[in-house]
Structure prediction request, 261 residues.
Amino acid sequence: SAHFGPGGKKRGETQDADGDGRPDVTLVYDDAGRKLREEVDKNGDGTPDDVTTYANDTPLKREADSNGDGRIDTIVHFENGRPAREERDENADGRFERVVHFDANGAPVRDELDADGDGKAESVASYRGGVKERIEEDSNRDGRRDLVTTFAGGERVRSEADANGDGRTDTTIEFSNGKKASQVEDRNADGKPDARYAFDADEQVTSEELDADFDGTFETRASYRAGQIEKRATSGGPKSGPGRTEIYGEGRLVRVEIDDT
Prediction:
């Protein structure tokens, strides 16, 4: 049904969009008949849970209660009639911890998450053409990014982490088809790799190389099958002593070979 003001101008309208016999959409117009406000009752409880305001028939802001708890949890800001920024309260705690920015085509370009509510985003995702390209994370909440993951075609291809918090990358993971394929670690912060791992298509380790004394040589090498160790060999030397090879069966040590030559 429609409501008219002086001069016969339509000032309001109600609609029954779902056909249940009760109005669930309310439209409000200005003196010129342009839409000012749209209220939608999506869950049928008689109270609007999705409200959009307009100027010159163009949307400006949308506020929604998507979970039906009576509180706004989604706010969309428009520019030139298109979504430009969306704020979300995803855990229903009353704080809008996620902010998504959109391009002129409505595709996301930046996704910021402030999970702890300190006013600083711990995770920032960047997109190109709506496809994720990069995520920067501050996992220890010190205000610095310590994990950066890059994507290609929406799948992870590389992660670089600062595990010890010294501001430098010390762990690098390469991905294949979105799954971990290799991992390299610098455990003593000298800028050189000290541990290397390879993984199968199920992300189970297949090989391990360690430079435990940080002399630049990987003296320990191990091989795995289905995630269980099969063999570990440690080369001998003046510091490490005789070489040692450990043979495993079903993950248990069954034989040790010593090379003291």
